[in-house]
Amino acid sequence: MEPEKRPEDDTSGWAALSPRQKALSTAGLAGLGVGVVALVLLAVLLGVLVVAVLARPLVEVESGTALVWGALLCLPCGLLAALFVHPLRAALRLLTGPGRVRAAGEEVLSGATTFLAVLFVASFTPGLRVREPWAPALLAALLGALAGHAVAYADRRRAARGGNGRGSGGQDADGHDAGGQDSAP
Fold first, then answer.
1. What is the CB-side half-sphere exposure of residue 172 using CA atoms within 13 A?
2. Longest CA–CA separation in the chain, Å
3. What is the pTM of this model?
4. What is the C-alpha to C-alpha distance for residues 145 and 47, in angstroms, rounded to an integer?
5. How confident is the model at residue 115 (pLDDT cuts 50, 70, 90)?
Protein backbone atom coordinates (compact mmCIF):
# COMPACT_ATOMS: atom_id res chain seq x y z
CA MET A 1 0.00 0.00 0.00
CA GLU A 2 1.16 3.44 -0.83
CA PRO A 3 1.09 6.11 1.86
CA GLU A 4 -1.61 8.72 1.48
CA LYS A 5 -0.47 11.85 -0.26
CA ARG A 6 -1.44 15.03 1.50
CA PRO A 7 -1.68 18.43 -0.20
CA GLU A 8 1.05 19.85 2.05
CA ASP A 9 3.43 17.12 0.85
CA ASP A 10 3.15 18.33 -2.74
CA THR A 11 6.34 20.18 -3.62
CA SER A 12 5.56 20.87 -7.26
CA GLY A 13 3.41 23.97 -6.76
CA TRP A 14 3.77 27.62 -5.95
CA ALA A 15 4.59 26.93 -2.30
CA ALA A 16 7.75 25.04 -3.26
CA LEU A 17 9.23 28.03 -5.08
CA SER A 18 11.77 30.29 -3.44
CA PRO A 19 10.93 34.01 -3.06
CA ARG A 20 13.31 34.81 -5.95
CA GLN A 21 11.57 32.28 -8.21
CA LYS A 22 8.18 33.67 -7.22
CA ALA A 23 9.32 37.22 -8.02
CA LEU A 24 10.72 36.12 -11.39
CA SER A 25 7.52 34.24 -12.23
CA THR A 26 5.39 37.22 -11.28
CA ALA A 27 7.53 39.59 -13.33
CA GLY A 28 7.43 37.21 -16.30
CA LEU A 29 3.65 36.89 -16.21
CA ALA A 30 3.25 40.65 -15.78
CA GLY A 31 5.51 41.17 -18.78
CA LEU A 32 3.48 38.67 -20.77
CA GLY A 33 0.27 40.48 -19.85
CA VAL A 34 1.73 43.85 -20.83
CA GLY A 35 2.92 42.33 -24.11
CA VAL A 36 -0.52 40.94 -24.92
CA VAL A 37 -2.18 44.28 -24.10
CA ALA A 38 0.40 46.06 -26.26
CA LEU A 39 -0.27 43.70 -29.19
CA VAL A 40 -4.02 44.20 -28.91
CA LEU A 41 -3.57 47.97 -28.73
CA LEU A 42 -1.26 47.83 -31.74
CA ALA A 43 -3.84 45.84 -33.71
CA VAL A 44 -6.56 48.35 -32.78
CA LEU A 45 -4.27 51.25 -33.72
CA LEU A 46 -3.62 49.56 -37.07
CA GLY A 47 -7.38 49.30 -37.60
CA VAL A 48 -7.83 52.98 -36.72
CA LEU A 49 -5.04 53.88 -39.16
CA VAL A 50 -6.56 51.80 -41.96
CA VAL A 51 -9.98 53.40 -41.49
CA ALA A 52 -8.44 56.88 -41.26
CA VAL A 53 -6.44 56.34 -44.46
CA LEU A 54 -9.30 54.79 -46.44
CA ALA A 55 -11.72 57.53 -45.34
CA ARG A 56 -9.11 60.30 -45.73
CA PRO A 57 -11.43 62.89 -47.31
CA LEU A 58 -13.86 62.57 -44.41
CA VAL A 59 -11.43 62.32 -41.47
CA GLU A 60 -9.21 65.19 -40.32
CA VAL A 61 -6.53 64.38 -37.76
CA GLU A 62 -4.80 67.20 -35.88
CA SER A 63 -1.84 65.04 -34.84
CA GLY A 64 -0.73 61.46 -34.39
CA THR A 65 -1.85 61.53 -30.79
CA ALA A 66 -5.46 61.79 -31.94
CA LEU A 67 -5.10 58.35 -33.54
CA VAL A 68 -3.59 56.96 -30.35
CA TRP A 69 -6.49 58.46 -28.40
CA GLY A 70 -8.86 56.86 -30.89
CA ALA A 71 -7.22 53.47 -30.33
CA LEU A 72 -7.35 53.90 -26.55
CA LEU A 73 -11.01 54.92 -26.66
CA CYS A 74 -12.00 51.88 -28.74
CA LEU A 75 -12.42 49.66 -25.66
CA PRO A 76 -14.70 51.93 -23.59
CA CYS A 77 -16.65 52.96 -26.68
CA GLY A 78 -16.98 49.31 -27.71
CA LEU A 79 -18.29 48.46 -24.26
CA LEU A 80 -20.79 51.32 -24.46
CA ALA A 81 -21.94 50.14 -27.89
CA ALA A 82 -22.23 46.56 -26.64
CA LEU A 83 -24.39 47.84 -23.79
CA PHE A 84 -26.85 49.29 -26.31
CA VAL A 85 -26.86 46.20 -28.55
CA HIS A 86 -27.05 43.63 -25.75
CA PRO A 87 -30.88 43.60 -25.45
CA LEU A 88 -31.14 42.81 -29.15
CA ARG A 89 -28.52 40.06 -28.83
CA ALA A 90 -30.38 38.55 -25.85
CA ALA A 91 -33.66 38.64 -27.77
CA LEU A 92 -31.99 36.94 -30.74
CA ARG A 93 -30.66 34.17 -28.52
CA LEU A 94 -34.05 33.67 -26.87
CA LEU A 95 -36.16 33.72 -30.03
CA THR A 96 -34.03 31.70 -32.43
CA GLY A 97 -32.60 28.23 -32.26
CA PRO A 98 -29.05 27.40 -33.19
CA GLY A 99 -28.55 27.52 -36.90
CA ARG A 100 -27.91 29.78 -39.85
CA VAL A 101 -30.46 32.44 -38.89
CA ARG A 102 -28.97 32.83 -35.45
CA ALA A 103 -25.39 32.95 -36.83
CA ALA A 104 -26.39 35.58 -39.39
CA GLY A 105 -28.14 37.59 -36.70
CA GLU A 106 -25.05 37.44 -34.49
CA GLU A 107 -22.93 38.73 -37.38
CA VAL A 108 -25.34 41.59 -38.05
CA LEU A 109 -25.36 42.54 -34.37
CA SER A 110 -21.57 42.35 -34.25
CA GLY A 111 -21.41 44.74 -37.21
CA ALA A 112 -23.92 47.04 -35.50
CA THR A 113 -21.78 47.03 -32.35
CA THR A 114 -18.69 47.95 -34.35
CA PHE A 115 -20.63 50.64 -36.20
CA LEU A 116 -21.83 52.22 -32.95
CA ALA A 117 -18.40 51.94 -31.35
CA VAL A 118 -16.76 53.81 -34.23
CA LEU A 119 -19.45 56.49 -34.07
CA PHE A 120 -18.68 56.92 -30.37
CA VAL A 121 -14.92 57.01 -31.00
CA ALA A 122 -15.39 59.60 -33.73
CA SER A 123 -17.42 61.82 -31.43
CA PHE A 124 -15.33 61.43 -28.25
CA THR A 125 -11.75 61.51 -29.58
CA PRO A 126 -9.98 64.84 -29.08
CA GLY A 127 -8.24 66.15 -32.19
CA LEU A 128 -10.28 64.01 -34.56
CA ARG A 129 -12.87 65.65 -36.78
CA VAL A 130 -15.11 63.53 -38.97
CA ARG A 131 -17.44 65.21 -41.46
CA GLU A 132 -19.81 62.31 -42.06
CA PRO A 133 -19.15 59.79 -39.30
CA TRP A 134 -21.44 57.08 -40.69
CA ALA A 135 -19.10 56.36 -43.64
CA PRO A 136 -15.96 55.52 -41.59
CA ALA A 137 -18.17 53.61 -39.13
CA LEU A 138 -19.62 51.54 -41.96
CA LEU A 139 -16.13 50.99 -43.36
CA ALA A 140 -14.87 49.79 -39.95
CA ALA A 141 -17.85 47.44 -39.58
CA LEU A 142 -17.22 45.98 -43.03
CA LEU A 143 -13.49 45.59 -42.32
CA GLY A 144 -14.35 43.83 -39.03
CA ALA A 145 -16.69 41.43 -40.81
CA LEU A 146 -14.05 40.79 -43.48
CA ALA A 147 -11.44 40.06 -40.81
CA GLY A 148 -13.85 37.67 -39.08
CA HIS A 149 -14.47 35.78 -42.31
CA ALA A 150 -10.72 35.63 -43.03
CA VAL A 151 -10.06 34.11 -39.60
CA ALA A 152 -12.90 31.58 -40.06
CA TYR A 153 -11.51 30.64 -43.49
CA ALA A 154 -8.03 30.14 -42.05
CA ASP A 155 -9.46 27.97 -39.26
CA ARG A 156 -11.37 25.82 -41.76
CA ARG A 157 -8.23 25.35 -43.87
CA ARG A 158 -6.18 24.42 -40.80
CA ALA A 159 -8.83 21.92 -39.74
CA ALA A 160 -8.93 20.44 -43.24
CA ARG A 161 -5.15 19.95 -43.15
CA GLY A 162 -5.62 17.75 -40.11
CA GLY A 163 -5.16 19.48 -36.80
CA ASN A 164 -4.58 22.86 -35.37
CA GLY A 165 -0.84 22.95 -35.94
CA ARG A 166 -0.01 22.90 -32.24
CA GLY A 167 0.61 19.20 -31.77
CA SER A 168 -2.65 18.56 -29.95
CA GLY A 169 -3.81 15.72 -32.10
CA GLY A 170 -6.84 16.02 -34.30
CA GLN A 171 -7.82 13.65 -37.07
CA ASP A 172 -6.01 12.58 -40.18
CA ALA A 173 -7.53 12.49 -43.67
CA ASP A 174 -9.30 9.17 -42.94
CA GLY A 175 -10.98 10.54 -39.81
CA HIS A 176 -8.82 8.54 -37.38
CA ASP A 177 -7.12 10.00 -34.33
CA ALA A 178 -3.81 11.45 -35.48
CA GLY A 179 -2.16 11.16 -32.09
CA GLY A 180 -0.31 13.97 -30.40
CA GLN A 181 0.11 15.28 -26.91
CA ASP A 182 -3.52 15.05 -25.85
CA SER A 183 -4.35 11.63 -27.25
CA ALA A 184 -4.34 8.57 -25.06
CA PRO A 185 -2.10 5.57 -25.95
1. 6
2. 80
3. 0.67
4. 13
5. very high
